[in-house]
Structure formats: structure tokens, C-alpha cells
TrEMBL record, chain A:
Domain Glucose-methanol-choline oxidoreductase C-terminal intervals: 444-565
Keyword Oxidoreductase: yes
Species: Roseomonas populi
Pfam families: GMC_oxred_C (PF05199), GMC_oxred_N (PF00732)
Keywords: FAD, Flavoprotein, Oxidoreductase
Record's protein name: GMC family oxidoreductase
Domain Glucose-methanol-choline oxidoreductase N-terminal: 233-343
SUPFAM superfamilies per UniProt: FAD/NAD(P)-binding domain (SSF51905)
Family (UniProt): Belongs to the GMC oxidoreductase family.
InterPro entries to which the protein is assigned, alphabetical: FAD/NAD-bd_sf (IPR036188), GMC_OxRdtase_N (IPR000172), GMC_OxRtase_C (IPR007867)
Source organism, top-level taxon: Bacteria
UniProtKB/TrEMBL annotation, chain B:
InterPro entries registered for this protein in UniProt: Cyt_c-like_dom (IPR009056), Cyt_c-like_dom_sf (IPR036909), Cyt_C_IC (IPR008168), Cytochrome_c-type_DH (IPR051459), Membr-bd_ADH_cyt_c (IPR014353)
Compartmental location: Cell membrane
Residue ranges annotated for the Cytochrome c domain, each copy included: 34-142, 184-292, 309-399
One Pfam family linked to the record: Cytochrom_C
Protein name according to UniProt: Cytochrome c
Record keywords, A-Z: Cell membrane, Electron transport, Heme, Iron, Membrane, Metal-binding, Repeat, Respiratory chain, Signal, Transport
Gene3D superfamilies: Cytochrome c-like domain (1.10.760.10)
Known cofactor(s): heme c
Signal peptide: 1-28
The keyword Signal belongs to this UniProt entry's keyword annotation: yes
UniProt xrefs under PANTHER family: ALCOHOL DEHYDROGENASE CYTOCHROME C SUBUNIT, BLL4482 PROTEIN-RELATED
UniProtKB/TrEMBL annotation, chain C:
Lineage, broadest ranks: Bacteria, Pseudomonadati, Pseudomonadota, Alphaproteobacteria, Acetobacterales
Name recorded for this polypeptide: Gluconate 2-dehydrogenase subunit 3 family protein
InterPro entries listed in its UniProt record: Gluconate_2DH_su3, TAT_signal
UniProt-listed Pfam families: Gluconate_2-dh3
Length: 588, 422, 248
């Protein structure tokens, strides 16, 4: 192993959180290196308009995601089963390369509800202990919405998010989400244009008493120049967003918002195709001294650094902590330990509507083109007697109609032959769905640890995921889905097919890449891995970014909150930590 | 945390200096600088690093002057010399007078004649005081030993004595003489443009022997597989429809609402105009709007008919691959995707510029004021020569544009030219 | 695709210091914002010609199957004319057939849970080879010693139905697994970009009204709930990109 010159900070992973953190630390005068195990990616070369809209390559063969042969996860539903590797991605799609999953996201950019952050104390106060499900591990986050608000704002203005505000400094705004937490100002850009389906949904939902509003979108409605001076173009509704890179600079990503500035910062360098294999610790085990990484030729390098930022995807942050012995591993039998604890996911559902005489032309869409109703999310509604915690947002989106994967036919139609062909043709342009993004609570037996059998290409144990949807989530999903059906009926569907979330969780069909937890934040080192600044409780020069910090998952896409937490952590590092390095920012 | 590394401190200092020259009002007039600082700024006006920097792309400090970068001329490659004060391989032994003679007359110590790829034909307009300042600045650089093989031109152009005859034909030494009937701003602009900034070196067409065609002052033309655009006052082909403010913004940031600097001009903006003072940029713009020599106005053009096959094919390709950025009406997106409708770059007589951009792609200039530098993707891998010709013909003749049609042979020539050029 | 990408990137890193990618002791360091003209990563284009993976008999069997899965009827041509068999052949001859990028280390347990997904030790190419051998034997046993492509349309429909409903499964022949595999790849071929050898003349897209890769549908928002009339376009272009009579 060869030793490289010391850096002030090393960042593991150059996606959204790595790029944000890199920029903030460089602005503070630090010398920073980011280590990214995937390739360099750039709009013009990698997302050429003549190669980007390719469903087979990107949507089906997964060209932008980390190869399972490089790294994957073993999975099982219960602790008494033998976990097996996810040999090809299905349920979720971890990113790869510079930009990470922020390259191929859809761009839904939400703030969580204020009550999501103190969920345990909030529900306890309103409903009593009896509301919580069996074996739950629901915890408060150790941070309040009010503390995070400035950082949500910062992330939204970095991205230029398109939307309509619902609550500006406590004043409810027409056309926005009346349930959202206060925001200091409106969105940077107006909402996207709406498709036929959204217009129908808005009318139907409004008549039923909902207050629908445009889904906040990182596909921009118009050109926007962010505070770093980086400009994005307007979205053209190409219908190749999630799973694809954007060819015309209209989807917010590290590439389109930060890298043009960060890569030219004299304090910054990136090394690509360099996989960090462990974090190095001092003799007393109380401080990280840097990282070890392997380059693409297999050579090992030591990169010493004073500050170690784990900014990989949620799963890989947890895995790196387990390898490196950072934080006490979680033990589901005793409930003790913190690393790997509270893995959660998202309980989504859909209602499909088959229509006559409507042309939705859903191929003209954008990742975040949609209308949302938030009446049944979080604790926006009275849970008394409902026997579940949590909720879901309700969305009518038009984000693609790519024909290998999106050819809805009514149940009972043959899978092949002339009848299949006719049904496929008749329903392709005339079907619309309403979906929900549901919360997912945390449970004692849903967790991450190292697999005892399966190894990666470097001989290290794979991460093992033990997870299933619990009755709480099934009840929540059934309830919210039952609220979606009347909207679909009012929209005039001739046939309605409901798919509320039900266990067992399967690795096969795509559900969502909203994996959370495993290195959760909180106010107590006994029950959480990091403090509210994402600083590891017992290794103060290590910070862990990303959704691994979520103690449980809310009824929204996570990226907005991930961005806000990153800016919050960066602010604490540059304004507090660097004045007194090596010290905890929160006293245990 | 330890103090920032020495490198960071150095860079911070350099950034501070940049801020000094770029900062908002009040800006010190260059005349108030001491000789070295004036020299540093004059080197920026002259874009010296674009040619003399290390071929590995490093242009920090003395690396910007170590030479060795091959410069393409119509007569072959010329490798630029080391102009750091290294005594063995640079200009460390040159006296101030010898340096002035090189700049003013194109003659090296010892009497050898320089090729006009080194634009002494423009530098001759510089005042002795300014040339001395450049000399003073260059002598503050770290001397770097970097021998450069200068003899890369093929016969007969490798015979330096031939430059004597060339100079007789095309070169008139002499410092710039201000026009007393013009404003100081105009005269400042004229001095920069015709002197240190040597704009005509690219933007004035050359005759067979590489001399300026003065009747086509600033009319633009092919250059190293690119096309230097016209910067005359012509409405269709030049800067006639540009305001002074638009020219200033373009030179300062590499962008304006209509266009983006790319190719060789991107380097000019990054290393030179983007670092000039606002006052000097304004002076340049004022001068360009009323240059001392007006080119013969370009003849009017009739657009290629919409019935032409190339226009129909070109429109189909444009609709499928181009309008997602440049929009269906060719308006583009200000400061992001260049406007094609009414664009003088697109309508130049020569098609080299559009062909190269469409086939190879290109990235817009980076400046701290406009850091995005979005890139046009390449299409040569997918479009055949007929298709390239059609789509370029279309954008040159749609939306009120008018320019000669592009042939498949033009596209084939460009394809050959680009074979070994990243 | 992954290997090509890696090698190209490596080459760039090793040779083009000028553009900010430095291949030295610092290993793949990127500073500045790298850019190279003409840098593009197109997919491998399927070319006409003989089978690259299938034997003649295998190819004939697949052609017969895809043409019943997607039959020629009054709505238009079927799977064979669309090139679905060529698509599958080219896929199996490439990275997909080798399960490139998938996690293929053992152990492979005998009875994985359905929720645990793909746990097959064989590559897709191997599954086709063995599956088609099993199919050939199955057809010979049950259809009078004929080969699959010699079945009538009705017989083929009967065979496919029995495979789909797991009625043809035996220890020697996992008919339902083979059906699912071929069905999946046939649909991919019929609806994937024509650059991969199927969906000839965009016939799959034309059937349903998918306009392809145009990348700008802003004009749709001016006329919602109406039919979009521009012709579809693939990664290869469309006929209007060429003079009359030219290749797509």
C-alpha cells in the first residue's frame, strides 16, 4: 500500500452529498479530495442526446447503476431466512460514478413535514403509546424542521426547484401545499406545465375536497442560474428522466449545479474509479486518520486526512462503517448497538385507471411532472382508530411511457398473441395512474449487517438486508389507496385497478430507491450513530451524509431532506467544528 | 484543522490579484501600475499564455510561458518558444532592447527573423514603455529550463531568411498613433485591438503568403479547422446588431444572450479578455463598432429555398436532435444554448465553424462569471456527410438566416480534418 | 458496455493530461472540468447478417416462437418481421448473454424464495442453449418427432400456452422458465430502439403511438388530449433524415 500526501478532508463518493460538501469545505479553504468508485460522467459525452434516450440500455440493462458484480446486497425478509444476493438490481437502483444516483433520479424535491422530525413525541402526545406498532423502533430525529428550514432553502435554490409555495412564513398560499412547513420564500422557479392527466386529477381531487398542488420538481420549468453562477436549461418533457442522464442540462444534479465550479476550485480534486475499502483509525480508535482505497488496477492507496466524510449511497455508508469498526454494530436480538439499525424503505401504492376517449400521451412527461395531494400524509389527518402510524402523499404524475416497461393492459388480458397486441395498442395512450409515496416505520428486525457467506470482488462480505413490510405499513397503504380510488373514479376511468402495498417485500419489481437508515441521527449516542450534524458520536472527525441518517422514512422522496441535512452539516463543520477540530459538536 | 497548505495560500494570493484587476469600481488605470504589474496586465491583453503555456495545459505562473505548444499555421506546425527568463532555453540573456526589437521588428537577438505566427506585426504598434513593462514582468517569472524544438516547419517555410522578403511585402513597423479626432476610449480600444490583443491575427483573412488582406479587415475566415467569425459591423455576418454592452459581456464572460465563445475563442476569453478591465473591454467594443478600416460590405444573400431537399432533411434532423436545446424557432436559451436565428456565426460564408461544432461538439468558454460552460454534443458518429450537410444547410437558412448551402464534400473534408483531433 | 467504457476512460486518463485527467501516482486524478471533442459512447449497433449466437435450428425455433407471441394480424406485422429473433440473438452474443455486470458468485441455493429474485447459476445464453435443447426434445416427444419451427400456428400456440401455464414442465425441461425468458426478451426486442436489431422500422412504436427519442415534447402541452402527429424517431434517425429511398 502506498501512502499519499495528507489532505484536510477526504470525501467518499462524489454524488449529491459529496459535491455539496466538497464545495462548502473548499470555500472554507480546505484542501479536499473526493474518491469516487465509478467513472467520470459529463453531460455532453455521457448523455449525448443521440444516445441518452435509450430505454434498453439505461432503463432495462441498468447501464448507469453500480454493477452488482462490483457491489451488491444480500436480502431476506425475516431473520430466520438465509439471505441471498440481489444478483441484478430490481427493487432499488443504486447509482454509480460522479453524480451518483443524482444523475438518474426523477427529481421530486420535497421537504418532510415538521411532525416527521419529532414523530415519536408528536404521536405520543396526540394519540398515546398505543398508536405505535409492535416491535417498532420509531425515534425522533434530534433536529427540528425549524433548524433545517434554511438548509432546505439552500438546496432548493442550488437546484432551482420548480414549484408553488404553500406556506411562506406561516402564510398559507393559494395553489400550494397547505400542509407543508413554513418556508422563508417561494420556489426559485414556477411549476412545470401540466399534462392532460394532471388537469383531470386537479379537477377531480378539488371537487372531492383535496387541495392539490404541483409536485416540486428538479426538472426545471425555465432556465435558472443558481447562486454559484451555474445555469440550467428548461425541461423539454422528453420522458427519459428516472434511470437516465439528462441531455439538455435541465435536471438538477451535481453535474448541472455544482461540478462546473467545484471541479475548477484550486482546493479540490476528484479521483475516479477509486473504491474506498475502509476508514483508517488512530491507535486509540477514537479518530479516523484517513481511508484506504483501491484503484481500478487493484493497487491500494492510503489517503491520510484530518476529516473523513462518508458521502456514498446510504447502503455503502453503512457497509463502510461496519467494515471499519466505526460505531457499535446493531444487534437485533438485544436491540443494542447503532450501526445497521433502523433500515427502512418506502411503502408505495398505485391505482391504475383505464379510460376511453382520453389521450394522455404520457411519453410527453418529466420525472417530476405531477400534481400532489397531501391530505393523507404524515399526521395531516386524524389517526384515531386507524391503527397505524404514518401516511403517504398522493400523486398523479406523467413521467414516461417508455414502451418496454410501460404498456398497461387490463387484468385478465392474455400476455401474448393478437388479443394482447390489441389491448396493448388500445390502452397505451389512454391509461393513467395515481400513486402514493408512503412512509415506512422502523422495526427491531429490519436492519443491515454483514453477510456471513457472500463476498464482493475484493473478498469483503456483502451487506445483508433484513426487511419486510409490516402490518402497520400495509394498513397505512390500504387506507391511503382507498382515498385515491374515488379520485380516479371522478376522473372517469372505465376500469380501476388498485395495488396497495403488501408484503412480503420482493427484490424483483422496481419499487423505489429510497433506502434509509442504518447510521441514524438522534440526540443520544446509545440510540443513534450520528448527532444532528451527522457527526459520528464516538469518532468526531467522521461525518456520515445521506439517507442513512433517517431514523425512519417519511411519505416523501428523500433527496430534499438529504440535501438539507448535508448543508446543515457543512455549515456546522465550517463554522463550528474547524474552530475546534476533533471535538464533538454535541455533548453526549 | 491545520492552516491551509502553502499551495492554497499561493492560490488565494493569486485570486486576490485577479480580484484587483477584475474588481468592480473603482478600477485603477493600467498606467498607474508599476512596470511589473503593468507588464502582467499587458501579458493578459496579449493572451501570451494561449500560445506559450505548457502543452499539458498548465498555465499557472511561469508554466504559462514555458513554450512547446504546437501552433498550427497554414504552412505547418510552429512550436512556441520558452519565454521564461531561463538563460539556456528562455529569454534570460535578452536585453531590454533586444526584447523590444523582437516585439517591434520581429527580429531575434543575433538577427534571425521570427515568423509572424508570433504576431509582431501587431505588437509593433505597442509603445516602448509597454513593451518594457512586458519585459519587466517576464523577468519576474521563475526561470524554467525547457528546450523546445523550434524547427518544425516544412521546407521552404523553414528558411527564416525568407521572412525578410515577407516583411517587405506585408510588414510596416511602427507604434500606434492615436487619432486626435476620436475619443480617448476609442483610441484605447484601437490600441488594444490593433496592438497587444492582435485580434486581426485570426479575424482578418490572410493572403496566400499569410499577410493580412486589409480590404477584408476583420471579415473573418477559416482558421485551424475552425472559422474565425467576422467582427466587422455587418448586420448579418458581423457585430452590426450587437450592442457595446453585448460585446463587453461576451468578452468578459464568454457568454451573452445570443452566443457563446467556443473553440479557440474560448481560450481567448479564458486567458485574456475575461481578465481585462471593464474599461478596456468597453474601449474594445467602442472601437469594434467603428473600426479604423471598414471592410467592404458583404453582399446580400438569398436563403436556400425551403423546397430544397437539404432543407427538408435538415429540418427533420433539427427537429429530432437540435430543438431540445436550441428550440424549434432557433431562439436558443439565453446564456445557455446559443441562438441560431440571426446568428452571425451560423451565417458566415465559410461553413467550417458550424461543421466543426455539429460534428465534433464543442464546449463553451469557462469564466468565473459564467462557470457553466455547457457543451454541444458531437454528432459525427451518427450523422453521415449528407445528413451533416443537410442540418447545417438548414440552420444557415432557416428563420430568416441566409448562407451558402453546405455540401456533403464539405462535411467529408471536415470529417477527415477531425480524425486525429480531440 | 461496461468494459468498453472502462477501457476508454482508462485510455483517456492515461494519455490526455492536457484535458485534466492525469494518470500518475495520484491515480485517476481529475481536476478542472475534463472535456474532449467527439467523446461519445454509442451502443453497439446490431448489423444484419447470420446468427451470432443461435444455431440454424435454434434461430428457426425462436423465429417461430416470437411470431406467435406477437403474431402478424390486421394490426400489423409480427415478431419475426420486427426482428425480435435477431434482437435476441445479438443480445445473447453480447454482454447480456454473459450476464455481464451481474453478481454471479455462489453458492446458488436450490430453493430460493420467490422474493429473492434471480438465483440462476447459468448465464442467459446458457439458459437459452439448454432451454431450446429441452424444447426440441419436448416437441419431438409430443408433436410427432418434428422440430419447433415445423409446428403449425395452432400447434405452436398450444405449445406456448402449455409452457406458460407450467403444464409442459418436467425434470428435463423447465418450459415455464424458458417461456418467461423468451417472452421477456421478445417484448424487449419489439419495443427497444431499432438500433438493437428488433422493432424494425419502429413498427412496435408505431403500433402503440410512441414517438421515440425526439427529446422535446413541449408542443404537446399546447394541444393536450389530441393525437401527436410527428413521425417516431429512433437513435438511428427516421426515413426523413435521408433522401427518398435512403436507409433509415
Amino acid at each position: 500500500m502506498r501512502r499519499l500526501p495528507r489532505k484536510d478532508a477526504v470525501i467518499v463518493g462524489l454524488g449529491w452529498t459529496g459535491a455539496i460538501m466538497g464545495h462548502e469545505l473548499c470555500q472554507a479553504g480546505l484542501q479536499v479530495v473526493a474518491l469516487e468508485r465509478g467513472p467520470w460522467r459529463d453531460t455532453a459525452s455521457d448523455f449525448n442526446i443521440g444516445t441518452a434516450p435509450d430505454e434498453l440500455r439505461y432503463g432495462i440493462r441498468n447501464d448507469l447503476f453500480v454493477r452488482p458484480s462490483q457491489d451488491c446486497v444480500t436480502a431476506r425478509n425475516t431473520m430466520d431466512q438465509v439471505a441471498l444476493p440481489i444478483r441484478r438490481w430490481g427493487s432499488f437502483l443504486p447509482g454509480n460514478g460522479v453524480g451518483g444516483a443524482g444523475i438518474h433520479w426523477n427529481g421530486h424535491t420535497w421537504r418532510f413535514l415538521p411532525s416527521d422530525f419529532n414523530i415519536r413525541s408528536h404521536y405520543l402526545e396526540r394519540y398515546g403509546e398505543g398508536i405505535f406498532p409492535e416491535n417498532h423502533m420509531i425515534q425522533d430525529w434530534g433536529i427540528s424542521y425549524d433548524e433545517l428550514e434554511p438548509y432546505y432553502d439552500k438546496f432548493e435554490y442550488l437546484c432551482g426547484i420548480s414549484g408553488t409555495a404553500g406556506n411562506v412564513n406561516g402564510q398559507i398560499q393559494p395553489g400550494g401545499n397547505p400542509f407543508e412547513g413554513w418556508r422563508q420564500r417561494g420556489y426559485p422557479t414556477p411549476p412545470l406545465r401540466m399534462q392532460h392527466a394532471q388537469n383531470m386529477f386537479t379537477k377531480a381531487a378539488t371537487e372531492l375536497g383535496f387541495k392539490p398542488f404541483p409536485l416540486p420538481s428538479a426538472n426545471l420549468s425555465q432556465a435558472y442560474t443558481n447562486p454559484l453562477g451555474v445555469t440550467q436549461g428548461p425541461c423539454t418533457y422528453c420522458g427519459f428522466c428516472e434511470r437516465f442522464g439528462c441531455a439538455n442540462y435541465s435536471k438538477s444534479s451535481a453535474q448541472t449545479t455544482i461540478l462546473p465550479v467545484l471541479m475548477r476550485h484550486p482546493g479540490f480534486e476528484a479521483r475516479v474509479q477509486c473504491e474506498v475499502v475502509r476508514v483508517l483509525k488512530s491507535g486509540d480508535g477514537k479518530t479516523a486518520t484517513g481511508v484506504v482505497y483501491v484503484d481500478e488496477t487493484g493497487e491500494e492507496w492510503e489517503q491520510p486526512a484530518d476529516l473523513v466524510i462518508l458521502a456514498a449511497y446510504q447502503l455503502w455508508n453503512v457497509r463502510l462503517m461496519l467494515y471499519s469498526g466505526i460505531g457499535r454494530p446493531y444487534d437485533p436480538n438485544s436491540g443494542e448497538g447503532v450501526v445497521g439499525k433502523n433500515y427502512a424503505y418506502q411503502a408505495n401504492s398505485a391505482v391504475n385507471g383505464f379510460f376511453d376517449n382520453q389521450l394522455f400521451n404520457s411519453w410527453a412527461g418529466a420525472g417530476s411532472l405531477g400534481i400532489t395531494a397531501d391530505e393523507y400524509n404524515g399526521d395531516n389527518f386524524d389517526h384515531t382508530g386507524l391503527n397505524f402510524v404514518g401516511g403517504a402523499n398522493i400523486n398523479c404524475t406523467t413521467f414516461h411511457a417508455r414502451p418496454i416497461s410501460a404498456r398497461p393492459i387490463p387484468p385478465g388480458t392474455p400476455r401474448w398473441g393478437s388479443a394482447w397486441k390489441k389491448a396493448t395498442r388500445d390502452n397505451y395512450l389512454t391509461t393513467q395512474n395515481i400513486g402514493s409515496q408512503g412512509s415506512n416505520m422502523s422495526y427491531r428486525d429490519c436492519y443491515l449487517d454483514l453477510d456471513p457467506t457472500y463476498k464482493d470482488r475484493l473478498g469483503r462480505p456483502l451487506l445483508r438486508m433484513t426487511f419486510d413490510f409490516k402490518p402497520n405499513e400495509e394498513r397505512m397503504s390500504a387506507y391511503v389507496t382507498s382515498k385515491m380510488e374515488p379520485i380516479m373514479r371522478a376522473m372517469g376511468a372505465k376500469q380501476i385497478v388498485s395495488n396497495p402495498k403488501k408484503g412480503p417485500w420482493s427484490v424483483v419489481p422496481y419499487q423505489t430507491t429510497h433506502n434509509t437508515g442504518g447510521a441514524i441521527m438522534g440526540d443520544n449516542p446509545r440510540t443513534s450513530a450520528v448527532n444532528k450534524y451527522l457527526q459520528v458520536w464516538d469518532m468526531p472527525n467522521v461525518f456520515v451524509m445521506g439517507a442513512s441518517a433517517f431514523p425512519q422514512n417519511a411519505g416523501y422522496n428523500p433527496t430534499g431532506t438529504v440535501g438539507a441535512l448535508t448543508y446543515h452539516a457543512a455549515d456546522a463543520i465550517t463554522k463550528q467544528y474547524l474552530k475546534n477540530p476533533g471535538q464533538p459538536l454535541v455533548q453526549a | 484543522m491545520r492552516a491551509p497548505s502553502p499551495k492554497a495560500a499561493l492560490l488565494a494570493a493569486a485570486t486576490g490579484l485577479a480580484a484587483l484587476t477584475l474588481g468592480p469600481a473603482p478600477q485603477a488605470a493600467p498606467d498607474n501600475y508599476d512596470a511589473v504589474e503593468r507588464g502582467r496586465y499587458l501579458v493578459t491583453l496579449g493572451d501570451c499564455v494561449a500560445c506559450h503555456m505548457n502543452p499539458n495545459g498548465n498555465h499557472e505562473g511561469a508554466q504559462g510561458f514555458v513554450g512547446g505548444r504546437p501552433i498550427e499555421t497554414p504552412f505547418g506546425m510552429i512550436t512556441t518558444p520558452n519565454i521564461t527568463p531561463d538563460r539556456g532555453t528562455g529569454i534570460g540573456t535578452w536585453s531590454e532592447d533586444e526584447f523590444y526589437r523582437a516585439m517591434h521588428e520581429g527580429i531575434r537577438p543575433g538577427g534571425a527573423r521570427l515568423y509572424p505566427a508570433f504576431p509582431y506585426t501587431y505588437f509593433t504598434k505597442m509603445t516602448r514603455r509597454d513593451v518594457d513593462a512586458v519585459y519587466a514582468y517576464l523577468n519576474t517569472l521563475e526561470p524554467i529550463h525547457n528546450p523546445v524544438d523550434r524547427n518544425t516547419l516544412p521546407f521552404p517555410f523553414n528558411i527564416r531568411a525568407s521572412m525578410l522578403a515577407w516583411n517587405g511585402l506585408f510588414f510596416e513597423p511602427g507604434e500606434f498613433r492615436p487619432d486626435p479626432n476620436r475619443s480617448p476610449e476609442w483610441n484605447r480600444g484601437a490600441y488594444i485591438v490593433e496592438g497587444p490583443a492582435h485580434c486581426g491575427a485570426c479575424h482578418t483573412p490572410k493572403n496566400m503568403l499569410g499577410g493580412d488582406r486589409n480590404s477584408q479587415h476583420f471579415a473573418g475566415g477559416p482558421l485551424q479547422g475552425w472559422l474565425a467569425a467576422s467582427i466587422t459591423n455587418d448586420q448579418r455576418l458581423g457585430l452590426g446588431s450587437w450592442s457595446v454592452d453585448e460585446i463587453v459581456e461576451y468578452l468578459k464572460t464568454g457568454r451573452n444572450a445570443r452566443s457563446a465563445a467556443s473553440g479557440p475563442m474560448a481560450e481567448v476569453v479564458e486567458y485574456s479578455t475575461g481578465l481585462m478591465t471593464d474599461a478596456d473591454l468597453r474601449a474594445i467594443a467602442v472601437y469594434l463598432k467603428e473600426p479604423s478600416q471598414e471592410a467592404t460590405p458583404a453582399a446580400a444573400r438569398t436563403p436556400v429555398s425551403g423546397d430544397d431537399d437539404r432543407m427538408k432533411i435538415g429540418e427533420a434532423i433539427y427537429t429530432d436532435r437540435c430543438m431540445a436545446c436550441h428550440t424549434g424557432t432557433g431562439q436558443g436559451v439565453p446564456h445557455m444554448f446559443p441562438r441560431l436565428a440571426g446568428s452571425q456565426i451560423v451565417q458566415q460564408e465559410g461553413s467550417e465553424g458550424v461543421l466543426r461544432v455539429v460534428m465534433q461538439g464543442v464546449r463553451a468558454a469557462y469564466t468565473p462569471h459564467a462557470p457553466t460552460s455547457p457543451a454541444m454534443p458531437a454528432f459525427a458518429w451518427r450523422l453521415n456527410d449528407d445528413q451533416v450537410a443537410a442540418v447545417t444547410t438548414y440552420i444557415r437558412n432557416a428563420w430568416g438566416n441566409a448562407a451558402p448551402a453546405v455540401s456533403a464534400g464539405d462535411a467529408a473534408n471536415m470529417r477527415r480534418l477531425l480524425e486525429n483531433r480531440p | 458496455m461496461s468494459d468498453e467504457r472502462l477501457s476508454r476512460r482508462t485510455l483517456l486518463a492515461a494519455t490526455t493530461a492536457l484535458f485534466g485527467l492525469v494518470g500518475t501516482a495520484d491515480a485517476r486524478t481529475v481536476t478542472g472540468l475534463p472535456y474532449l471533442g467527439n467523446e461519445v459512447y454509442p451502443p453497439p449497433e446490431a448489423r444484419p447478417g447470420p446468427w451470432l449466437f443461435f444455431t440454424a435450428d435454434e434461430g428457426a425455433a425462436i423465429e417461430a416462437i416470437v411470431d406467435r407471441l406477437i403474431p402478424t394480424d390486421d394490426l400489423g406485422p409480427g415478431g419475426k418481421e420486427a426482428g425480435c429473433a435477431i434482437f435476441i440473438d445479438r443480445q445473447l452474443a453480447g454482454p447480456y448473454g454473459r450476464n455481464e455486470g451481474m453478481y454471479m458468485q455462489g453458492p446458488f441455493p436450490a430453493n430460493p424464495l420467490p422474493t429473492q429474485g434471480y438465483q440462476n447459476q447459468l448465464t442467459f445464453a446458457e439458459q437459452y442453449r439448454r432451454g431450446l435443447a429441452g424444447l426440441t426434445a419436448h416437441v419431438a416427444r409430443n408433436f410427432g418427432n418434428r422440430k419447433p419451427h415445423q409446428l403449425s400456428a395452432e400447434e405452436m400456440d398450444r405449445l406456448l400456452t402449455s409452457m406458460e401455464k407450467r403444464e409442459a414442465n418436467s425434470p428435463e425441461f423447465n418450459g415455464s422458465a424458458l417461456f418467461d425468458l423468451i417472452h421477456n426478451n421478445t417484448m424487449e426486442g419489439f419495443f427497444a430502439d431499432p438500433i438493437y436489431g428488433g422493432n424494425k422500422d419502429m413498427m412496435g412504436w408505431k403500433l402503440i403511438g410512441f414517438p421515440g427519442t425526439r427529446y422535446d415534447y413541449r408542443e404537446v402541452f399546447d394541444k393536450l388530449n389530441t393525437r401527436y402527429n410527428r413521425p417516431p424517431v429512433s437513435l438511428l434517425g427516421r426515413p426523413e433524415w435521408n433522401k427518398a429511398g435512403g436507409r433509415t
